[in-house]
Amino acid sequence: MRNYPLKATLLVSVIWAALYFASCASQKAEVSQEPRITQEEPPQEETGQLMYALSPTKIREARTKESKVVGKLNGGQRVKAAFLQDEWYAVFNPDETDLSEENALGYVHASRLKPVEEPSEGVKLKYAVSRANIREKPSKASKIVGKLQIGERVKAGFLKNGWYAVFDPDETEFSEDEALGYVFAPLLKDAPEEAASPTDAR
């Protein structure tokens, strides 16, 4: 007697197994074709920092002292600095908004620049470490409206772009609009509590 039901059962099992493996292979192929989603951090936008030159400074074509001089900064002059690399900043006009190195004025060594400080909340008694001009505005190109002798005292505050607004030493109320003028910050030094007279300070 032939065993037809057994053969049919085996044939069905083989067909089912083949269909199962074919289905698994198809699903695996679909998964492998799905694009991989990778989360990338957005590039940080360079905003730059307002800085001023501590003294007359050369702007170089590249980040090296041997590079060609393409411009100059006066002491106290502001620039926007960005892209610090190898101790050199790319520098831009202070009002530049498109900060890409292609728009840079050139490069200045980091040691020649200092961040612009916000206006000082306090006004301190200071004295002139050398003869100093009082300027109408915080710029060496501005009109001279007065002079300080060595050791002469003033009250100084509102530090901006490397310049102090200066006031009479007896002044008690301070507004930048009422200042005598501006003096380049490195020419002033904090006076001791019992400040010496101009003669003693020489």
Report on this model:
The N and C termini lie far apart (132 Å). The chain contains one helix and 14 strands; from the N terminus they run H-E-E-E-E-E-E-E-E-E-E-E-E-E-E. Strands 6-5-4-1-7 form a five-stranded antiparallel β-sheet, with no helix packed on it. A five-stranded antiparallel β-sheet has the order 13-12-11-8-14, with no helix packed on it. The chain is an alpha+beta fold and 202 residues long. Among the domains are: 49-115, Roll (SH3 type barrels); 124-190, Roll (SH3 type barrels).
Would you kindly provide a brief summary of this structure?
With 202 residues, the chain is α+β, with helices and mostly antiparallel strands. It contains one helix and 14 strands, in the order H-E-E-E-E-E-E-E-E-E-E-E-E-E-E.
- What does the largest sheet look like? 5 strands, antiparallel
Runs in which pLDDT lies below 50 for 5 or more consecutive residues are 37-44, 195-202
Give the radius of gyration: 36 Å
Please state the average pLDDT score.
Answer: 80
Instruction: Report, as a whole number of angstroms, the end-to-end distance.
Output: 132 Å
CATH architecture of the domain at 49-115: Roll
Number of E-state strands: 14
